[in-house]
């Protein structure tokens, strides 16, 4: 076996960029010597260290911790480092399980939304729905995405993985009573994962209509619901709200959008 290897040989052997090896050297993790031609020459100790460094860096172990280990490598310190690795792996497994649950929840939400009866007016009995909201003075329809992002930023930790949650907006009461269906007073997130949050939408009967396509269809669909309520002697108990079951977070195809309008009933 050769006693030492040039940087290009080591980089090729490990599939690394030579700059990565130079960085490890700068950080005191590798200690190549200079050959007669001034090229870096890596010994067997460096080759062994690269295996350890790569494995630890993939787990996110800090460089200074790796340096301390390479400077004092004994069975005792190796066992101690293995304990740390196992702890890091356990945390990553927890994160991966959480991420998988979010992926599955998002898939379930999209599939359920695709099965919704588009264009069908229904009277539904719904339970209390908990969530988080942001109230502003008359949010225009084109400002809803911006308002939702503000709400997400305000509760970033709690709303992590929003793909599994429902987003929506509530019409502004004053504007609604004046016949204006383009202004909103509140945006919100709803979801089973927000159990400790306040009730945003109280349980009870709601008039519901799901429509497909662009949000420009909202005023016409909303008026259709209000006409239905009058024709069937149903008394409304509040402003209409929109729930965005499938939107730009899920598809670029407007025809695949699914938005539900709900109006609370007495």
Structure description:
There is one protein chain. This protein has 266 residues and is of the alpha+beta class. It has two domains: 4-73, Multidrug-efflux Transporter Regulator, Chain: A, Domain 2 (Orthogonal Bundle), CATH 1.10.1660.10; 118-264, Multidrug-efflux Transporter 1 Regulator Bmrr, Chain A (Alpha-Beta Barrel). It has helices at residues 7-14, 18-26, 44-58, 63-71, 75-114, 144-154, 173-177, 218-231; strands spanning 4-6, 33-34, 40-43, 122-126, 129-140, 166-171, 183-190, 199-201, 204-212, 241-246, 258-264. The strands form two sheets. The protein has an eight-stranded antiparallel beta sheet. Strands 1-3-2 form a three-stranded antiparallel beta sheet. The model has no long low-confidence stretch (mean pLDDT 90).
